[in-house]
């Protein structure tokens, strides 16, 4: 029985080793933000919100029109390809395919921008417009003026683009 006690004591760290480990653990863990910390809420008047909403609505309508034009163009290309492909050689066929794929890519890009604007409108309704989704800081007014559907502050956007 005494052998077990000795073995157990040998496995337990000394008090100074335990305190060193405890200090090392506290040094490694970052300070946690306080529970009372809240997201900064940009103070906007009703007039500013209405102006932002009008600009976003206008941009959304422009994008919808552009998207509709792109879809019509793609449909016309598809009709031409199906009805007027007799006599096309491989180069003509390849050129038409590349052109159609480019139009589809542009339409997808417009659709993605539409989604961004719709999301900005939702954030405006929720009261989160102008707050960075990643770090929670206020997005500078100059950034929002240049890119109204921005969801990230400049620093977070730069970090995202580096990846």
Automatic annotation (TrEMBL):
One of its GO terms (molecular function) is zinc ion binding. Residues 19-28 have a biased composition (Basic and acidic residues). It holds the Pfam family zf-dskA_traR. InterPro entries: DnaK_N, Znf_C4-type_bac, Znf_DskA_TraR, Znf_DskA_TraR_CS. Residues 127-162 form the Zinc finger DksA/TraR C4-type domain. Residues 1-18 have a biased composition (Low complexity). Residues 1-46, 78-100 are annotated as: Disordered. PROSITE patterns: ZF_DKSA_1, ZF_DKSA_2. A zinc finger (dksA C4-type) spans 132-156. Keywords: Metal-binding, Zinc, Zinc-finger. This is TraR/DksA family transcriptional regulator. It comes from Stackebrandtia endophytica.
